[in-house]
Amino acid sequence: MCRFAVNRYIIPACSYCNSIIRINHNRYSNNLIWFLTNQKPIISIYNAAMRANLTIGFASDQAGAIGMPINSMIFGPNATRNVPRATAISQQFIHNKLHQMLIEEYIKMQFTQIRNATVKINYAGKKILIDPWLAEKGAVPGFGGTINDHIRNPTAELPMPVSEIVDVDAVILTHDHPDHWDDAAKNAIPKDIPFFVQHEKDAQAVTSAGFSNVRVLNKINDYEGITLIKTPGQHGRPKVLEDMKELLGDVSGIVFKHPHEKTFYIAGDTVWCQAVEDSLKKYHPDIVVLNSCDAKVTGDESIIMGKQDIYEVYKAAPEATIIASHMEAVNHATLSRKELREFLSEKEMMQRVLVPEDGESYTF
Ligand SMILES: [Zn+2]
Q1: For 133, what's the count of Cα atoms within 13 Å in the CB-facing half-sphere?
Q2: Rounded mean pLDDT of 18-26?
Q3: What spacing in Å lies between the alpha carbon of 270 and ligand 1's midpoint?
Q4: Are residues 81 and 33 in the same domain?
Q5: Domain range for residue 69?
Q6: d(CA 41, ligand 1 centre) in Å
Q7: Nearest Cα residue to 268 out of 304, 242, 306
Q8: How far is ligand 1, taken at its centre, from the CA of residue 134, in Å?
Q9: Of 43, 111, 268, 304, which shows the fewest CB atoms inside 10 Å?
């Protein structure tokens, strides 16, 4: 433990810094910042600060512990006198500079495929869970009247404990379907969590499950500095959509934007359609998540994306990384990861299309 007590320093009101590291303005000096933190992040902050030619103070025990060169270290409250490079720049300047570097060093978005459409993202310092379907494998019957409805759902286990999955700051439900939101999720998620839904009807469903902080998404929303944009989708090709309008219902996707993060788009349960094309054109997402198991009710009309839909998105978003989600977890899926990978390999799309296993994470 550092020998400087935390309460001797001012901790700036900065959600990034507080969530990652405590930046403390040394009360003996206008031009030093003391970091009180564990050893690992210090190394990259140190490197970043050196690149920017900033002088940084470290608590001596921590600096020593990570083996920094002795002539770069500044010890204790007398540091000002020992620092040749200390300049008269303001605390605010240093803070702003380091704040920016911290973001570059630390705030990289992370995507975790959990199972089916259930994914978790760390975005601008917030952990957000999307479409939590948390039942155990085989807990419920297959969706009656769909392909392979003799197979029980979910068809795969969760890859991690429920407690880990629900350790988040907010939840988003793209639409209230039983493979996106269930009793297990209702029981496991804290009832006061910010919970975003597409419209009033879904808000009522979530509220009636006991949730007290349900927020209906507008077109554009702010959540703790993150811009959430609700996007439309089409839960099936025209004929099946017409035949089963009531059952398939309304769906939404979400675009996440933040000045320090890549733009991230979850298309939701939709096939390739004008709405998806428009969202790609309008928001230029760097990362696009597509629900890709080519689920079918009966007959041959898909209700979510399959190989060809992914190919269309691939062509329409030539810079984007695509993630195939909603794979191998429901009875009516008709596209496996293996078959999708073979298709991607044939078309030489592997570079930009990722097919995560359940439990797999990516950092962008
Ligand atoms: Zn679904």
Answers
A1: 26
A2: 33
A3: 9
A4: yes
A5: 6-105
A6: 39
A7: 304
A8: 13
A9: 43
Q: Which of 105, 130, 160 is a domain's end point?
A: 105
pLDDT at 103: 53
Q: Which residues surround ligand 1, an ion (CB under 5 A)?
A: 179, 269
Q: How far is the CA of 269 from the centre of ligand 1 (A)?
A: 6
Task: Specify the pLDDT at position 73.
Answer: 32
Cα–ligand 1 centroid distance for 325 (angstroms): 10
Is 1 inside any structural domain?
no
Cα-to-centroid distance, 282 and ligand 1 (Å):
25
Q: Tell me, what's the pLDDT at 136?
A: 97
Q: What is the pLDDT of residues 48-106, one digit of tens each?
A: 555 554 444 443 333 333 333 323 333 333 333 333 333 323 344 444 555 555 555 45
Residue-level pLDDT at 107: 56
Same domain, 101 and 112: no
- Report how far residue 219's alpha carbon sits from residue 205's, in angstroms, rounded to the nearest whole number: 20
Same domain (yes/no): 160, 280: yes
Summarize pLDDT for 272-315 with one digit per residue, the tens: 999 999 999 999 999 999 999 999 998 889 999 999 999 999 99
Domain boundary among 105, 137, 160: 105
Tokens of 86: 């200390």
Tell me, in angstroms, the distance from the centre of ligand 1 to residue 317's CA: 23
For the domain that residue 129 is a member of, what is the CATH number?
A: 3.60.15.10
Q: What six digits make up the tokens of 288? A: 């696009």
